[in-house]
Design goal:
285 residues; TIM Barrel; 8-stranded parallel beta barrel; 11 helices
């Protein structure tokens, strides 16, 4: 995530944040549509976009069939049970695997992290792997087990409209704090693609905007756990924007070392929200 000395705190926080989750609900584009949109986004090259195309491994053959010209793309590959027998694909010159995502039980994750460290495998030259940990009692201890095992990291999913699946503000705040304390990089899977959170008046289901998550992480970096839930529960986009803009640049840089990416089904709405809230600065020119 390259930055310059002249970027504002908001620009540091927003640069390369949005990962392309166009294949995922709730909008779920067809593969051809998703690939064409992704290639257009790469040409436009807006600084907020990570230019990582998130793809389930079960759809790897379909992705390959749609890559006729247009240059190489970076893919975040989700190893789902239906594809590739849970393993990585054969290399393809049209694709660079930017990272892998996979689900894991806490006990298995602890074993994987211990093995990773014991073999001396940790290092920035290796492809990152983000584990979506099964949220059973004690699962946050598994997050702590990833400490010191970069580029292994954690993932949390925040878009399922079922309270039993999506994390509460308290649980999400504890996850973020555990990642900050343990120096564990993490990504967020979220079908919600707006700057600020929202509570569905019909169901009471809470969605988390990317400003909520950025501010919560920055707050954990700067102040610890005490104020994190305030950042996660706010639906006031103006307040969130003002708080994000006031983050110290050093805190912003540390925040993004930890909070690696936010999967969004829309790659346009996040930028439009940030522009409307006055966070883009010189990127508007």
């Amino acid at each position: 995530m390259p930055v310059t000395q002249h970027e504002t705190a908001a620009q540091i926080l927003l640069r390369g944040l949005i990962e392309d989750a166009g294949l995922f609900p709730p909008t779920a584009l067809r593969m051809l549509q998703a690939v064409e949109r992704h290639r257009t986004d790469r040409i436009v090259a807006h600084p907020m976009l990570a230019h990582r195309f998130l793809c389930p491994s079960s759809r790897w053959p379909e992705l390959l069939s749609r890559l006729n010209g247009g240059g190489r793309i970076d893919v975040g590959l989700t190893l789902d049970s239906a594809g590739l027998a849970g393993g990585p694909p054969e290399p393809d010159p049209r694709i660079r695997i930017a990272h892998y995502e996979t689900r894991a039980r806490p006990k298995d994750l602890r074993m994987a992290a211990d093995l990773f460290r014991s073999k001396g495998m940790n290092g920035r030259e290796r492809t990152a792997v983000y584990f979506e940990i099964e949220r059973v009692p004690g699962w946050l201890n598994a997050v702590a087990a990833l400490s010191g095992a970069r580029p292994l990291g954690a993932k949390i999913h925040c878009s399922d409209p079922h309270a039993s699946v999506s994390p509460s503000p308290a649980e999400l705040g504890e996850f973020i704090t555990a990642c900050v304390v343990g120096d564990v990089p993490f990504t967020v899977g979220s079908g919600w693609h707006r700057a600020a959170g929202h509570i569905d008046p019909r169901t009471g289901f809470r969605r988390y905007g990317y400003l909520n998550l950025l501010l919560a992480t920055a707050t954990a970096v700067d102040f610890g756990h005490g104020r994190v839930q305030n950042a996660l529960t706010s639906t006031d986009e103006e307040w969130l924007a003002a708080e994000v803009a006031s983050v110290a640049p050093s805190v912003a840089r540390r925040t993004r070392e930890l909070f690696v990416g936010y999967g969004s089904c829309s790659t346009g709405d996040p930028m439009r929200d940030a522009a409307r809230l006055g966070l883009l600065g010189s990127w508007e020119v």
